[in-house]
Amino acid sequence: MKNTETNHAEAPTLSDVVEQSDEKSEQQRQVENKEQMASSDVQIQELTAKLKDTESKAADYQDQVLRAKAEVENMRRRMERDVEKAHKFALEGFAQELLGVVDSLELGLVAANEESATIEKLKEGKELTLRLLRNAMEKFNIKEINPVNAPFNPELHQAMTMQESSEQEPNTVLLVFQKGYLLNDRLIRPARVVVAKAPAPASESPPTENNENN
Fold first, then answer.
1. 191-208 burial by CB neighbour count: b if 16+ within 10 A, else e?
2. How confident is the model at residue 40 (pLDDT cuts 50, 70, 90)?
3. Which of 94, 82, 99 is nearest to 141 (CA)?
C-alpha cells in the first residue's frame, strides 16, 4: 500500500509577510499620491479661475477709474471756460443798458445846439437820461442810499460833519452831500452826510453895568 502524501500549502514566512506589507503600503501610498495630485490639480484650476476673474475685475475697475478721471478733467475744463466767460462778459448786460443812456445824452447834446432849444427841454432830456440810468441800475440790483431825516447808520453812512439842530433828533441825518449805493446789498459807496446833534445849552447873559451898580 502506497503512502499518499497530503500537499499542504507552505506557511508564509516572516519575510514574506513583511514584503507583502511593504507592497501594500507602496500601493496605498501611490493611490494617496494620485488622489493628492488630483486634488491639487483641482485646487490649481480653481485658483487659476479665481485669478483670471480677479484680473478681469481689476481691469474693469481700472477702466472705470480712467473714465471717471477723464470725465472729472473734462468737467474741470468746462468749469474753467465758464468762469472765464463769466468774468469776461459779466458786464455785458449792464453795458447794453448803458447804451440807452449814452444815446439819450448824445440826443440831448444835439438838442442843446439847436436854436429852438430851451431850458425846459434840456431839463426834460436830462430827467429822461437819469430815469434810463436808474432803471439800468435797478435791473442789476444797484440800490440808492439817500438817508435824509433817517437815523445815522455807520455801516451805510459816512459823517462828514455834525450840526446843531433843534428840529431833528440827535444822530439824525440832516443833509446828504453825496448819495451812497449798494450792489446786491453790499455797500459800494457810503452816503456822505451831515449829522444832527443837540443844541448847546444857552449860556447865562453876562451882568450888565446897571446890575453891577445896583
1. bbbbbbbeeeeeeeeeee
2. confident
3. 94
CA distance 139 to 132: 11
Question: For the chain, what are the domain ranges?
Answer: 141-200
Band of pLDDT at residue 47, cut at 50, 70 and 90: confident
In residues, how long is the chain? 214
Q: Model's pTM, two decimal places?
A: 0.56
Q: Which CATH number fits domain 141-200: 2.30.22.10, 3.40.640.10, 1.10.10.60, 1.20.1250.20?
A: 2.30.22.10
More confident residue, 63 or 176: 176
Query: Which residues, including other chains, have CB under 8 Å from residue 118's CB and lie 6 or more apart?
Result: none
Q: Using the predicted structure, report yes or no on whether residue 189 has a pLDDT greater than 90.
A: yes
Instruction: Report the chain's C-alpha Rg in angstroms.
Output: 54
With CA atoms as reference, report the closest residue to 160 among 119, 192, 189: 192
Tell me whether strands 173-178 and 157-164 are parallel, antiparallel or unpaired: unpaired
Question: Which cell is 207 given?
Answer: 451882568
| pLDDT, mean of residues 53-77 | 89
CA distances from 156 to 169, 170, 187 (A): 19, 18, 7
Q: From CA 149, how far away is CA 167, in angstroms rounded? A: 10
Please, are residues 148 and 191 in contact by the beta-carbon 8 Å criterion?
Answer: no
Can you give the pLDDT at residue 152? Answer: 96
